[in-house]
Amino acid sequence: MIYILPLLSVLIGFLIALFLKPNSSLAFKLLLSFSGAYLLSVTVFELLPEVYNTGDAQIGIFIMLGLLLQIVLEFLSKGAEHGHIHHDENTSNFPILLLISLGIHSLLEGFPLSTTEHLLYGVVIHKIPVAAILAAFLLQSKIKKYKVALFLILFALMTPLGSWMAANFEILNKYTSYISALVIGIFLHVSTTIIFEASKNHTFNASKLAVIVAGILLAYLL
Ligand SMILES: [Zn+2]
Ligand SMILES: [Zn+2]
Predict the structure, then answer these.
(1) Ligand 1 center to residue 215 CA distance, Å?
(2) What is the pLDDT of residues 36-78, one digit of tens each?
(3) Closest-approaching ligand to the CA atom of 105
(4) Are 33 and 212 in contact (CB under 8 A)?
(5) How far apart are CA 13 and CA 106, in angstroms?
(6) Least distant ligand from the CA of 102
(7) Ligand nearest to the CA of 74
(8) How far, in Å, is the centroid of ligand 1 from the Cα of 82?
(9) What's the rounded Cα separation, in Å, for the pair 148 and 122?
(10) What are the DSSP E strand ranges found in 31-135?
């Protein structure tokens, strides 16, 4: 499941990009808000207590490093991790920086997936809108179709690769809680940015607030 579900989420995202307009559809925006709220809740309810339970004083430092790392990654990705892309749509160049940025992000997010089932769901739900926005951009651009396919396949493989590395490289076991802390920092930044950007100009939006509350409740009750 750990390997299949993240792959499936990219496929679902790709299908959404084919049939919906992710940039403007309300359903898509609600899905994005829900994914942010659910991911943040799983992080706060389950991942955070787990890493702090180790009693290691260094945990907090790694959380903040993860947050900083995500800020740097978003210079390269222009926000694809939290649901929008500002790249030039007329480009025909392979967006290598975007792939590197999303690749590092996705690889790291694969590492702690085996810790809780809820985190797996959280990452899967978070990946669907990211894959959709990415696929929509790539399909609208002038990038050759085989390159688009290559990009999406590489992107899809990174999270399962992270999970596989965590399960098979014994050296990494010593650093499990540090890597989890790094990923917590990444998730805190991505999910709060999604929730922040959901209320553009601070206008009240009942449906968005409702899906955010639903995301929190679901993560708490499941
Ligand atoms: Zn943004
Ligand atoms: Zn992510």
Answers:
(1) 20
(2) 999 999 999 999 999 999 888 899 999 999 999 999 999 888 8
(3) 2
(4) yes
(5) 15
(6) 2
(7) 1
(8) 6
(9) 26
(10) none
